[in-house]
Every structure is written in structure tokens, then in C-alpha cells.
Amino acid sequence: MIEEKVKIPQATSKRLPLYYRFLQNLTNAGKKRVSSSELSELMKIDAATIRRDFSHFGALGRKGYGYDVQYLVNFFRQTLDQDEVTDVALVGVGSLGNAFLKYNFHKNHNTRIVLAFDPKAPVEGHIISGIPVFPPSMLKEKMLEFNIELVLLTVPAQVAQEVTDKVVKTGIKGILNFTPVRLAAPENVRVHTIDLSVELQTLIYFIKNDVKDSHM
């Protein structure tokens, strides 16, 4: 986990998992050292931005040498708590929720779905893709039993806030929201929203404007 005393910008924090992933790929390829310009070319992030991001953590590299790849991998693994797996609950087993259950994250990340909830599940629960699924009536009991602090929310938009109100009462710390609703939650619960329709519309906008710019 990133310590609170390390004051780094939110934009930098969001890039840290990307750095870790690309550095792991370099390690697997046998790369021993890398420059910010090489990372820039690989990641399509400005080299100055990379150097600025890394500078928040002190001297990670040496002038004229670049960065030691294995050192950076170890550093970001510790910074991101990659060796500690976080258990996650999924609320809403529709098409997207089912896809998450089949994929599960622990294969490639330090998170794993261990519990899910869906109105169609029986009271005694059933298993989907190896994950126990229970009805919403069992939410509080099971969330506390599994000691869940992070939730993936993939419910219909019309019930998103209602479900959020219920899950925050279990003492969770974060919600990754895949609904288009802007959720209201207590200050001690961090909510990150991924609105797929907005992301798609944004991509279409940029593509169309790229075409316009190419004809100017």
C-alpha cells in the first residue's frame, strides 16, 4: 500500500500499476536496466512525466545509467503491496459480473473475488466459476464473515445507490463502480467509477477529431 505520508499526486498514483506491469514485462524479457526514454516509448507516456513520477519516491535511478529494472520491480511491488492479496466481493452477477467471476483477478493481480451476491441466488448460496454466490439478504452477514473491504458493483443503475447504502454499512473502504450512477457514499469510503459508455463515447469523439485534424 502507498503510505499516506508519501504525498504524491493522484494522477501519479494511477500510473503506478502500469509502471509495475511494464517493468515486470521487461524483467521477463531479461532486461537489466532501462532509461526513461525507453519506458516512454514502451508505455506511450512522456519521459518527463515518468521522471517526475519516479522523483516523488526519491532517487530511483542514476544519471547516465538509467533505472535498474529489478530494483524498480521490487520497489513497486512493495509500494503497491503486490505480495498481499486483497479479497473482493462482487455485487451483481449479470453479464459483466459473470465475466468478472470467470476471469477473477488474482491470476494477474493482487486481488481476488471470493464472494458474490445476486437476487437469483438461493438462500443457501450456489457456486459460479468457483465463487460462492448468495442473495442480497445475506449481504451483511457474509461481508463480515469474509472480512470484505472492497466491492465491485455491477448492478442495474436503478438500484445502484440502494445497494451502495447497504454495503457501506458493512464497513467497506472502497467501491469500484461499473454503473453510470454517481454514487453518494461516506467520506471514509472511496468510490472509483468506470462508466463504459462514457469511455466509449470519449474514444469515438477523439477518433472523429483525429480524422478531422488529419484533413486540415
> How far apart are the termini?
47 Å
Strand count: 10
CATH superfamily of the largest domain: NAD(P)-binding Rossmann-like Domain
Query: Average pLDDT, to the nearest integer?
Result: 86
CA-atom Rg in angstroms = 20 Å
User: Based on CA inertia axes, which overall geometry fits?
Assistant: elongated
CATH-defined fold name of the largest domain: Rossmann fold
DSSP helical segment count: 8
CATH architecture of the largest domain: 3-Layer(aba) Sandwich
CATH class of the largest domain: Alpha Beta
The low-confidence runs, each spanning 5 or more residues with pLDDT under 50, are 1-5
InterPro entries: CoA-bd, NAD(P)-bd_dom_sf, Rex_bacilli-type, Rex_DNA-bd_C_dom, Tscrpt_rep_Rex, WH-like_DNA-bd_sf, WH_DNA-bd_sf
Keywords: Cytoplasm, DNA-binding, NAD, Repressor, Transcription, Transcription regulation
Subcellular location: Cytoplasm
Pfam families: CoA_binding (PF02629), Put_DNA-bind_N (PF06971)
